[in-house]
Amino acid sequence: MLIHIGANEFVGMNKCEVMVNLQTIDEDSKKRILAVLPKLSEKEEYKSAIYTTDGKWLGSTLSTESLSQRGICSPFSDALFVNNLE
Q1: Can you spell out the DSSP letters for 11-48?
Q2: Cα–Cα distance between 61 and 53 in angstroms, integer?
Q3: Against a cut of 0.90, is the pTM above it?
Q4: Could you tell me which residues come within 8 angstroms of residue 64 by beta carbon, excluding any fewer than 6 positions away?
């Protein structure tokens, strides 16, 4: 299952190690995470960060609550996702 994290980016649920609410963590941790994420326009801000099983940080302007709900919701009936398991 894929989670749409915004900006036409997706991450597989099996790739999510941690979802971090950037609005509630301590400032030092937040600065370290934001330093490795691409810069956003001044009108946008990251609300969440996802640490993947392959050691990458992904940022999202969506809240962790929204992301977690997207992860547990079933896709609509006409959606088709095929995972290429090589």
Answers
A1: EEGGGEEEEEETTTS-HHHHHHHHHHSPPPPTT----E
A2: 21
A3: no
A4: 19, 20, 21, 47, 48
pLDDT digit string, tens, across residues 33-86? 999 999 999 999 999 999 999 999 999 999 988 887 766 655 555 555 555 555
Helical (H) or strand (E) element with 55: none
d(CA 74, CA 69): 10
Among the listed residues 5, 7, 23, the one whose alpha carbon sits nearest the alpha carbon of residue 69: 5
Query: What is the residue whose two structure tokens read 């099996």?
Result: 14
